[in-house]
């Protein structure tokens, strides 16, 4: 495998970076908002599931006493 000089490597990186399609500011903000919304929905879902399981376990423990 051929060795690449640091200068040549930087040039290759710049060339490849120029090929990337970067998201617009609007796309970035919309993606961030969607992440916050989905995280909140999942947090509420798992809070509900955890509460239900806690109630079931508490009821079972009361029966065992």
TrEMBL record:
> Pfam families annotated for this entry?
SecE
The question of whether Membrane is a record keyword is answered with yes
Name the UniProt key words of this record, in alphabetical order.
Cell membrane, Membrane, Protein transport, Translocation, Transmembrane, Transmembrane helix, Transport
Q: Where in the cell is it found?
A: Cell membrane; Membrane
Q: Gene3D superfamilies under this entry?
A: Preprotein translocase secy subunit
HAMAP family for the chain: SecE
Which named protein is this?
Protein translocase subunit SecE
**Which species is listed as the source?**
Sphingomonas albertensis
Tell me the name of the encoding gene: secE
């Amino acid at each position: 495998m051929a060795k690449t000089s640091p200068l040549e490597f930087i040039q290759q990186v710049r060339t490849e970076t120029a090929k990337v399609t970067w998201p617009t500011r609007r796309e970035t903000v919309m993606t961030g908002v969607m992440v916050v919304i989905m995280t909140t929905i999942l947090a509420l879902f798992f809070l509900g599931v955890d509460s239900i399981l806690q109630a079931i376990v508490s009821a079972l423990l009361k029966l065992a006493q």
